[in-house]
Amino acid sequence: MRIMYCHDGTDRAQDGLERVVNFFKGIKPEMILVSVAEDILDASLEDEKITREYECERSAVLRKAAEWVTENGLDVDVMMATGEPRTMIMKAIEKQSPDIVVIARKEKSAMESVFQKSLSAYLVKNAACHLFIMGPS
User: CB 59: neighbour CB atoms within 10 A?
Assistant: First the structure.
């Protein structure tokens, strides 16, 4: 079994990863960790520098998460991308063909719900695989 876990670099994402690994550990799945750093379009040189620093930080968090998965006895593959998260995660799904994709839904304020696009809703409509969506704790 191949499980793709979308990790956004937050403590909540790491907690979710640990719960998923502990839940599925008995069947020894291959884990695929995916993280997407959003690219800033029309960015100044200063914005680009900030974006690259963010990418490096996100990459380091993803490597640490992968080490944790390995220490817990599972094989892991890591994919780091830069771009629009929905597009990049769909590309990762198409490339890796996981059996299950796991994402942790964020708790949003009323204002965020109006203005931010929902990754989980997008994947429900467009992903051609099983989804496991973890609600806010």
Answer: 15
- Going across the sheet that includes 130-134, the strands are 76-82, 30-37, 2-6, 100-104, 130-134
In a domain, 1, yes or no: no
Which residue's structure tokens are 């991308």?
81
Distance from C-alpha of 53 to C-alpha of 68, rounded to nearest angstrom: 23
Q: How far is Cα 86 from Cα 27, in angstroms, rounded to an integer?
A: 29
- The answer to the question of residue 109 being in a domain is yes
Residue 37 lies in a domain: yes
Parent domain of 40 = 6-134
Q: Considering its fold, how many domains does the chain have in total? A: 1
What is the pLDDT of the chain when averaged over all its residues? 85
User: The pTM is what?
Assistant: 0.83
Q: How confident is the model at residue 43 (pLDDT cuts 50, 70, 90)?
A: low
Backbone angles phi, psi at 101, to 5 degrees: -115, 130
Q: String of b and e for 109-120 (b: at least 16 CB within 10 Å)?
A: eeeeeeeeeebb
**Residue 122 domain flag:** yes
